[in-house]
Amino acid sequence: MKQFSNKFQSAQAEQSSPSFEKSTFLTLFLIAAVILLMLPFFTTFNEFLTKIIEKSALYQPIQDHIVPFFAKMIGSLLIPFGVKFTAYLDGMMINGVPMRMTWNCLGWQSLVLILITFLTGLTGNYTKFSKLECIMIGILGTFLINIFRITFTSLLAAYWGRLFAIVFHDYFATFITLIWLFVFWWFSYAFVLRSST
Predict the structure, then answer these.
(1) Which domain holds residue 104?
(2) Which H/E stretch holds residue 124?
(3) What's the whole-model pTM score?
(4) How many structural domains compose the chain?
């Protein structure tokens, strides 16, 4: 009887963790569905939000210090592709094509999305250290995905023109973030998060 009780408790512990995993992926699917349905609205709203914030001085420190740093970082990544690159305060010149870069291009939206998924993804019975590892990997990965997104957009502008870069930036870049979130949570549940029991 005691062995049956122990087996039942261990089975319950095994089942509790996957339910949190399912809720995380369900959250991701819901986010993806909402984004796909409202993508034109999000793009328009994003531009509207940018114009409102740019009328204030809140964005100025990011625009003055972080955007030029990002532009130089992207430029160094474009060198192996033979792209002629010049960074300046409001963006960059890529093979003679001007590409404006603002605080809004740095990927704050993807940071908001991953923070939302942390609320459901980390509610299981996991060790504190593995949760911290998961958060660090998630934030670092999101940063690197945004670097990739901006670099790829810049390559499109350099070799295929500004129109392709704008279409990718406004519409398809969101898919990269969603794919990253699915891969991140699969990796976290498979290799990072460890049960505390």
Answers:
(1) 23-192
(2) none
(3) 0.76
(4) 1
